[in-house]
Amino acid sequence: MSNASAQLKKPKILLVKLSSLGDVLHNLPIVWDLRARLPEAQIDWVVEEGYVHLLTPLLSKDGFKGIDRIIPFGLRRWKKNLFKLSTWQQFFAFKKELQAVSYDVIIETQGLLKSAIVCSLAKKSSNAVIAGLANATEFSGYEPIARSFYNQSVQVPFQCHAVDRSRWVTCSALNWSLIDRKNAPQFFPETYVNSLGKASVGLNELKSPYILCFHSTAREAKRWPNADWIALGKELSSRGYQMVLPWGNVAEQSVSREIAAQIPNALVPPAFSIEDAFGVIAGAVLIVGVDTGLTHLAAVLNKPTVEIYCDSPLWKTEGYWSKNIRNVGDIQKPPTVEQVLQAASELLP
């Protein structure tokens, strides 16, 4: 490390990655990078309260060392109730919890003002390193004002995979050589992944073997055409697989029903939470999805996954760490049905 605190054998480290689903998932590997070199460090993480369950499998317990503390941050909810006394009471309770530890190293990999403010609120040792992004990466949100909250701004490549970007900031903060991509990222503990059972959310109509189709995403341009989903679904259904089309809101439910109506035996399941998605994904024989958080969840769980890119760059979030993943398409180059079908066929039993 570059400061006196860096010489500590048991540094107290705070990770700040608040949201969203995919971003939090792609930040997980730095926990294991830190543990590999600093096994006795205290590692805490501030995250939006809606994503806490993504981190709970990493909590340290019974001799297992992962994350020591998860500190929930309720900004999304607080913004809707700014003038309520309870909102400010909750904010000050968060601040008190955050400041219960004096940190030697703070690693902020989001590059947004809200994340940088969390860094400023944290209690720090006298020579603490506060590291964050010095520049934007292409197609990612970035607010330059965040740099003023760091004492170590890290320049990263303009085109940088989300996992690699987090590793750049972490290695700079700790004065380490950059971790090579050949050192495949770890996300969840292997014992946790192996323990995941099938869906337990009342999906009685799920029939094995089933294939999950994550067709929905926040940005319309990232969607794969409905006609292509239908063509893919008909072919895979003819091979004996049940096509399952989850949804997250009423509009997405309508699209799921439209697609499912034209695929034999397809299922539009009831709504389920992201937490429940672990079990639903674990029970699937294959996941096919566009560039969205639940598709990335399948990839980091090392499930057979076909990631479809239509209007976002492949290099930004592609699953490169497993032979169980196929990445098809690219920005403004959506894949054909034949390309997705070929990728799926390579992964199906």
Automatic annotation (TrEMBL):
Its annotated pathway reads: Bacterial outer membrane biogenesis; LPS core biosynthesis
Q: Name one GO biological process term.
A: lipopolysaccharide core region biosynthetic process
The catalytic activity of this protein is classed by the Enzyme Commission as 2.4.99.23
Which InterPro entries does this chain map to? Glyco_trans_9 (IPR002201), LipoPS_heptosylTferase-I (IPR011908), LPS_LOS_Heptosyltrfase (IPR051199)
What is the catalytic activity of this protein?
Answer: an alpha-Kdo-(2->4)-alpha-Kdo-(2->6)-lipid A + ADP-L-glycero-beta-D-manno-heptose = an L-alpha-D-Hep-(1->5)-[alpha-Kdo-(2->4)]-alpha-Kdo-(2->6)-lipid A + ADP + H(+)
Keywords annotated in UniProt: Cell inner membrane, Cell membrane, Glycosyltransferase, Lipopolysaccharide biosynthesis, Membrane, Transferase
Q: For this UniProt entry, what's an example GO CC term?
A: plasma membrane
Q: Which Pfam families match?
A: Glyco_transf_9
User: One GO molecular function term?
Assistant: ADP-heptose-lipopolysaccharide heptosyltransferase activity
How is it placed in the membrane, per its record?
A: Peripheral membrane protein
Catalytic EC class: transferase
Kindly indicate where the leader peptide sits in this chain.
none
Q: Does the keyword Lyase apply?
A: no
| Entry protein name | Lipopolysaccharide heptosyltransferase 1
Q: Which family is it part of?
A: Belongs to the glycosyltransferase 9 family.
According to its UniProt entry, this protein's organism is Polynucleobacter yangtzensis
Q: The organism sits in which domain of life?
A: Bacteria
| Keyword Nucleotide-binding found | no
Q: Where in the cell is it found?
A: Cell inner membrane
**Coiled-coil zones:** none
